[in-house]
Amino acid sequence: MSSRSLLSLVIALLLSACASMRDAPEPDQYVDEDPMLSEYPVAHAVVPEAFVSASTPDDNIDSPASWRAPDGKTWVFATAKVGGRLVIYDGDTGNTLRHFGSEGDGPGQFRRPNGIAVHGDLLFVVERDNHRVQILSLPTLKTLTTFGTEQLTQPYGLWVRERAPGDLDVVVTDAYMAGKRPNGWDIPPPLAELDHRMQRYHVLLADDVVTVRYDGAFGDVTAEGAIRIPESIQGDVAHDRLLISEEDTMTGTAVREYDLAGAYRGRTIGLGTFKAQAEGIALWQCPDGSGYWITTDQFMDRSVFHLYDRVSLTHLGAFAGNTVANTDGVWLNQSATTRFPNGVFYAVHDDQGLGAFDWRDIAQALNLRSDCATK
Question: Which residues make Cβ contacts (< 8 Å) with residue 183, sequence separation at least 6?
Answer without folding.
Answer: none
